[in-house]
Amino acid sequence: VLNKNPTVVFVLGGPGSGKGTQCANVVEHFGFTHLSAGDLLRAEIKSGSENGTMIQNMIKEGKIVPSEVTIRLLQQAIKDNGNDKFLIDGFPRNEENRAAFERVTGIEPAFVLYFDCPEEEMERRLLSRNQGREDDNIETIRKRFKVFLDSSLPVINYYDAKGKVRKVDAARPVEEVFESVKAIFGPKNE
Ligand code: UP5
Ligand code: MG
């Protein structure tokens, strides 16, 4: 199997910090495959799967979908893809996600790319995104921020204690943020 031991980078940061935007740039420059856990869950809703309604309700409330659902989607996507390097965007979002992914897949991330951005800037971006996401309304956005602080930041702290976090100031313009991202992935890989 070609991608039995793929290189994985977790891309984390609050809602609207720019994870998806920067992942697209990394794909283009460094040849990674981008797997957004949120995109996979939204596709699962659209596909009419039996979990669809449950996933939709959780996303509307800003809650974290059970690990087994998200991990199954991520594992399938890795398996379906011939690449050996993946950006996993927006996952793991809590300690249980993190431990379950490691246990089930045996994969440890090479590092964690963390987009650090103040809430007021993230809120501005989400409210002006206009892509019809059911969670881009002020009530859900506030819930997403709280879940990020309570559940997702501890995951970033866990990896930080292992020296694995590469933190980027994500409040700057897209191009400036990408300059920092490029320096992390390294010119040799471009
Ligand atoms: N933008 C981007 N960068 C900018 C910059 N530097 N300056 C100015 N504007 C910038 O960007 C957001 C908006 O800002 C865009 O309009 C962009 O043009 C602009 P984007 O790149 O989309 O940010 P991103 O961090 O990807 O924001 P997103 O809303 O996708 O983050 P979330 O973490 O909230 O969303 P995700 O899709 O990961 O998850 C959604 C929900 O799914 C979760 O709340 C949860 O309910 C569920 N979920 C799980 O349960 N489990 C999972 O593992 C994953 C998701
Ligand atoms: Mg995103």
Q: How would you describe the overall organization of this protein?
A:
The protein has 8 helices and 5 strands; from the N terminus they run βαβαααβαβααβα. It has 190 residues and is an alpha/beta fold. The chain has one domain: Rossmann fold. A 5-stranded parallel β-sheet has the order 2-3-1-4-5, sandwiched between helices. It is globular, with a radius of gyration of 16 Å. The two termini are 26 Å apart. Bound molecules: P1-(adenosine-5'-P5-(uridine-5')pentaphosphate and magnesium ion (MG). P1-(adenosine-5'-P5-(uridine-5')pentaphosphate binds next to helix 1, helix 2, helix 3 and helix 8.
What structural keywords apply?
190 residues; alpha/beta; Rossmann fold; five-stranded parallel β-sheet; binds P1-(adenosine-5'-P5-(uridine-5')pentaphosphate; ATP-binding; cytoplasm
Give the SSE map.
Layout: E1 7-13, H1 19-30, E2 33-36, H2 37-46, H3 52-60, H4 67-80, E3 85-89, H5 95-105, E4 111-116, H6 119-127, H7 138-161, E5 165-169, H8 174-185
Helix pairs in contact: 1-8, 2-3, 4-5
Helix-strand sequence: EHEHHHEHEHHEH
Stretches where pLDDT is under 50 for at least 5 consecutive residues are none
- CATH fold field value: Rossmann fold
Helix content: 40-55%
CATH superfamily: P-loop containing nucleotide triphosphate hydrolases
Task: Tell me what the CATH architecture is.
Answer: 3-Layer(aba) Sandwich
Largest sheet: 5 strands, parallel
What integer is the average pLDDT?
96
Count of strand segments: 5
Question: Which class of secondary structure composition applies to the elements?
Answer: alpha/beta
Shape: globular
The set of bound ligands, ions and cofactors reads: P1-(adenosine-5'-P5-(uridine-5')pentaphosphate, magnesium ion
* Strand line-up across the major sheet: 2-3-1-4-5
As a percent range, the share of strand residues is 5-15%
CATH first level? Alpha Beta
Distance between the first and last residues' Cα:
26 Å
H/I helix tally: 8
List the domain count as a whole number: 1
As a whole number of angstroms, the C-alpha radius of gyration is 16 Å
